[in-house]
Every structure is written in C-alpha cells, then in structure tokens.
Amino acid sequence: MMAGSNPLGHGRIAKADSAAIAEAVAAVRAGDVVAIPTETVYGLAADASNAAAVANIYRTKGRPDFNPLIVHVPDHAAAEQLAQFDERAAMLAFRFWPGPLTLVLPLQPDAPVARAVTAGLPTIALRCPAHPVMQAALRQSGLFLAAPSANRSGGISPTRAEHVARSFGDSMPLILDAGPCSAGLESTIVAVREHGWQLLRPGPVTAAEIEGLLGEPPLPVTEAKVEAPGQLASHYAPSKPVRLNVKKPAPGEWHIGFGKIEGDQNLSPDGDFAEAAARLFDALHTADASDRAAIAIAPIPDEGIGVAINDRLRRAAA
Ligand code: TXA
Ligand code: MG
By CB atoms within 10 Å of each CB, which of 40, 51, 260, 285 scores lowest? Predict the structure, then answer.
C-alpha cells in the first residue's frame, strides 16, 4: 500500500474506475477499511460480518463503540436477510430505495453481521444507496458493507475524496474518488417502531415525505435516550467557533452566505435548498481551512431540506 501513497502523505485517492473498484472489493474482502462514495457523503466501508474489520472502522474513526453503524445493502431483497420488514418498512424501501434513506428495523436473529455493528441493539440501521460506485462495491464483493461517514468522530462529514484524505492521512489506504456527492447531507434515518415511526436524523428525504407515505406524523424522540449519536448536540463540528443566522459577519469571520446574502462563499445564490445541502459540508471544510478565526453562517429557512441543513448547522455551532 505504501507504494501507492502520495507524496503529500495523504491516503491514496484513486479515480473510481473499474480497476480501482476491483481493488477496493479485494480490500474489503480481506477485512480492510476503504473509503467509498455514496450520493450522501463518503463512507468508511468494511465487511459487516467480520468483527475485526468492524473493529477497524471504530478504531479508524475514533468512534465510541456504543454508537452503531449503518449497514449498506444492494437491494431490498438482500436487506431481508438482516432485518424484519413489516408492511410500512416495505413501503418505505419500495418508495425511497435506492436512495438517501436509512431504516432502523428489528434485527433478524440470525443476521450475518458482527455484534459491534449494532452495538448490541435489537435493531439494525440499513441503507440501500443509489450511488453507482457503492452499488458496484456491494454487488462485486457480495458483502454487506458497514459504513459510517468517512470523517473522524465528531468532525465534518466528507463530500469529496480530498476531505477524506485530509482527515485520515495515511491511515486510509484507498479512497475511491467519484467527485462531489450529489445530496451532500447524510441520509435521513427513520426508525419503524411497533406503534408508529420516529425521525432519528433529518436528511434529504423529508419528514413530510415519510408522513405522506405512512399516513401518520412521527412519534417524538426522547432526547434522554440517544440512540443515534448523530443527534448528539455537538457533532459535525469544525475546529473553529461557529455563529448562525448571521447577516453581517464580524471582523475575522469567514462568512458562508445563502441566497441574497453573498458571504465569502455562497451555498446557493438562487436560494435553492438542494444545491445548498450539496455544498454545505464542503463550505464548512473550506471555512475551517481558511485563515479566519471564526465562521459565520447566513440564515437558512427551515423548509424542506432546509430542516436537515439547520439540524447540521446547530450541531456544528454547539
Ligand atoms: O448518509 C449516510 O447515512 C452515511 C453514508 C456513508 O451512508 N452514513 C452515515 O453513517 O452517516 P454514520 O455512522 O455517520 O451515522 C449513522 C447514524 C449514527 O448516528 C448511529 O447512531 C445511527 O445511525 N444508528 C445506527 N444504527 C442504529 C440503530 N440500530 N438505532 C438507532 N440509530 C442507529
Ligand atoms: Mg457521521
């Protein structure tokens, strides 16, 4: 692997062509961790059935082991090996997979996943991604791939291969590069419970879309029981102080704009939420790497995907 490392001392970034995908498949089969793009963010992928490989994910990410991982599946049929789908879960999978939705469902008793994947919970988080590179990795490996976002625990999620390289350096042997992620925010996480459903993490699929399909509003999520630490108050955090709802930045602040508030960098001059979501983490990485001491962000309306953007921004500022 060293031979392939680049002279900057970063993990090796390889354009995600068929040769690089084959190399990544060989690596995950051998129990290694590799970075693979999805349409939401880049993931740190490893064989979900291999306890040592899963331990390697936690170690690489510096993640507390009570925080369970999402398992990626090639399709709904394969997902049935891992979780029990009732009628509502099947409807959600039919409507939103492949795509940026993760379902938390009862774990199949004989599911072929290492215990650490679910951190001992009786449920499992499953996602069927649409990205062709992650799809190819799943199908060619024939494995279920556990993959958290490819950032150090608590840091900003990666939407470009360079973000992954910057946060992991040489500890990441291979990063498949397929350019910037189209959605740019982590998947929406929905838990299907016996008597209703919960939104554990807002994301590209909105709560209104889920409610429209299931015909009932979400059950409240009790803050005391943190099941999805993506929900911890401080998460996605840059290394600098972050101020929200700022129309006019103070001296020394890097200003991230939206719509008519121009800023040093604008998430979407037209005020388009999907475009802003796709650019958000890259803007935070850029702001963090700038020569300014602090970061200020323009107000973003709490509508549609704006809800998920504001969720991530509140945690970045906490
Ligand atoms: O878009 C995404 O979801 C990306 C890409 C790579 O797929 N993955 C991602 O993974 O964001 P991660 O590990 O950064 O966030 C997964 C979240 C965590 O907050 C975790 O606590 C929660 O999912 N989670 C996993 N299993 C769970 C379970 N059984 N019950 C509740 N929450 C769970
Ligand atoms: Mg994450």
Answer: 260
